[in-house]
What does this fold into?
Amino acid sequence: MRFLPTRLPGVTVVEPDVYHDARGFFLETYHARIYQEGGIKAAFVQDNHSQSSYGTLRGLHAQIQHPQGKLIRALEGEIFDVAVDIRRGSATFAQWTSVVLSAKNFRQLYIPPGFAHGFAVLSERAQIVYKCTDFYDPNDEICLAWNDPDIGIEWPVKKPLLSAKDAAAPLLRDIEESLPLFQPEPEPD
It folds into this structure.
């Protein structure tokens, strides 16, 4: 199993070992000790499953008082998965990274708390599952405009299918002051 860093601190691509034979395939999709050794020290409390059709864009979503880390993978189809640093004051604030997750490549993306998450569906249909480090709280959720020019995500879908909530989402600059100030973790002794 490989844990590949991205340009955003803590956002990690996971490439699990997949064992294929005449019967099909087998892989571990999560193993606490191995993931901790790979740098993902999260404790997950909730699993979610969604299905979306081609061109759907979900996001960008985050929670403020109860931020969620997420471990995302595609069970069916293919998605363009995105993380955006919304930790006000961090060196990578408002920067983004992406990875294509698919049922064929078996990759996962870990997005730590403090980042917004979104994805666009590239295949006819996609099903994703993701583990969360905190419970969903609709009163704590924020949305950011998927096409915020200050973030500049290069989405492969130009006219996405959006929920009403996502279509009305504000720009990052309009809610920046309400975001918690980034507090770096202390250096170990």
